[in-house]
Amino acid sequence: MRLRYRESSAQMRKRKKTARNLLKPLDPIVLKRGRGRPPNMSPSEVFNRARNYRGIFGQVWDRLWEPLLASKTEDDVIRAFEKYADPFSREFVPRLSSVIWQVIRHKKFPVRRGAQINFLADSLAGLNALKPRRARDIVAEGMAQLRARQKHRTVRREFYIECTCGYEGPTYKRKCPMRDPERAKVESEKFLLALTHR
Ligand SMILES: [Zn+2]
């Protein structure tokens, strides 16, 4: 197989870097500014904190949820976090205990584990500066943007080849498509179709 286009080492480094970036937190997402938000808390800050909190609750929820949801007072909320959310409890209590207390008694507080985690995490992402509802709206908008972006994420990159077998065109999984009998059939059909439609 002779390559007409060779990937340069710079491009290869770039590709590897791109793959690594998928594991890192995403760039700040730009959201429209809403009313009633202090200027020092940007939507992307709220969004990133929500993702962080989702991760934390994912780690402690199996121990935390039962005592937390059984809370009868705000003090119970603090105790539940101190006992079952270590080592993260200081992030949440006592500074957010009254918001947590409010959120877990919300009439739409979800029933399923994953939904509970997200609901609480998103609600708290505005700390005491945003209403839980406003924080959840910001996170929902960020998630929608993230999904739209991931829709166009390159998962396979091909190049153009001239092969000794006579094939000329894009690779399939980086190899000559004619190596694979099934794929060769598809390519031949494409070729014939192009001929008949000329
Ligand atoms: Zn070939």
Task: Write a structural description.
It is a single chain. This protein has a 3-stranded antiparallel sheet with strand order 1-2-3, with no helix packed on it. The protein has 2 domains: 58 residues, no CATH class; 108 residues, no CATH class. The longest helix has 27 residues. The protein is elongated. It is built from 8 helices and 3 strands. The chain starts with a strand and ends with a helix. With 198 residues, it is mainly alpha-helical. A hairpin with a 5-residue loop joins β2 and β3. The chain binds zinc ion.
Protein traits:
mainly alpha; binds zinc ion; 3 strands; single chain; about 200 residues
Task: Order the strands across the largest sheet as they lie in space.
Answer: 1-2-3
H-E order:
EHHHHHHHEEH
Average pLDDT metric: 84
Quaternary organisation: single chain
Helical percent range?
55-70%
